[in-house]
Write a structure and sequence with these properties.
disordered C terminus, eight-stranded mixed sheet, disulfide bond, alpha+beta, 277 residues, NIDO_dom, globular, 16% helix, signal, PEP-CTERM sorting domain-containing protein, eight-stranded antiparallel sheet
Length: 277
């Protein structure tokens, strides 16, 4: 969604919200999703370097706090980023990696029924909010890879509640610092999906994707909290800029345009040097 359309959508949503619940929701169209296999990695992730598994520091009744292998249900791990990250107008330098398919700021989220980012009680980035349960024998776990200006969190082949590992989901979040020099065609936040096979669990029937500010304002992917979302995400990816606008990976300057622009800059510089001399 381009900036002008998003601004209009926000204004319209805000107007409706003022007349009703006092919160605004913007919908991200599914048409903004791009095919992921072969773009960055053969399978569709941004990177196959997954890093260490999380070790939970809190969560629900089966969080398994401190368990070295990271297997848990409804747990979360607090993480110091070592860099600044601005989100909904607030700058953070730490976050919580939540087992149930999201990261949050200011507090961990152990909620397992996806009410969408609008229902989260803390600012949240949700590549796939569902009732993830990694206790099953065939389930993978949640991984994170932290560098100087980037965090990658991967829910790799994860199962669902209650300990079910017959169907597995694989998805990845890329989060970049305020100082990160973002390449053309990429963004500050990325959602990457490989095999996505489930949304129905023993506690819920749907999942949700998007962003929330913890007070009911949100951007959500079309189809969130509706049946069939996982199918739309299978083997897809999407980038967002610092304003949470979708980045079109194909919207890059044509080589001819770049050459003309560089030529114009060179001519302008030569002219300026001549005038100075």
């Amino acid at each position: 969604m381009n900036t002008s359309l998003r601004t209009l959508a926000l204004a319209a949503a805000a107007g409706l919200a003022m007349a009703s619940a006092g919160a605004a929701t913007v919908t991200i169209p599914q048409s903004a999703l791009n095919a992921s296999p072969g773009v960055y990695t053969p399978g569709g992730y941004y990177t196959d370097a997954l890093g260490a598994n999380i070790v939970t520091t809190g969560g629900g009744s089966a969080a398994n706090v401190g368990q070295a292998d990271g297997r848990n249900d409804d747990g979360f791990m607090q993480l110091n980023l070592g860099f600044d990250f601005s989100f909904f107008g607030t700058t953070y330098n730490s976050l919580y990696i939540n087992n149930n398919g999201n990261v949050s700021f200011g507090g961990g989220i152990s909620a397992y029924v996806p009410s969408g980012p609008t229902g989260a009680n803390a600012p949240v980035i949700s590549p796939y909010f569902g009732d993830v349960d990694t206790r099953g024998e065939n389930s993978g776990v949640v991984h994170y890879k932290l560098s100087a200006n980037e965090l990658v969190v991967t829910w790799d082949n994860v199962g669902r509640f209650a300990g079910r590992d017959d169907l597995l989901n694989s998805f990845q979040l890329v989060l970049r610092s305020d100082a990160f020099a973002v390449p053309v065609g990429e963004g500050k936040i990325g959602f990457f999906y490989e095999q996505m096979l489930w949304e129905v669990t023993d506690t819920s029937q749907v999942a949700a994707v998007g962003f929330g500010d913890g007070q009911g304002n949100a951007e959500v992917l079309q189809g969130s909290t509706q049946a069939g979302l996982f199918r739309a995400l299978n083997n897809k990816y999407i980038w967002f800029d610092a304003n949470l606008d979708v980045v079109d990976p194909n919207d890059v300057p044509e080589p001819t345009t770049l050459a003309l622009a560089l030529a114009a800059l060179g001519a302008a510089g030569f002219s300026a040097r001549r005038r100075k001399s």
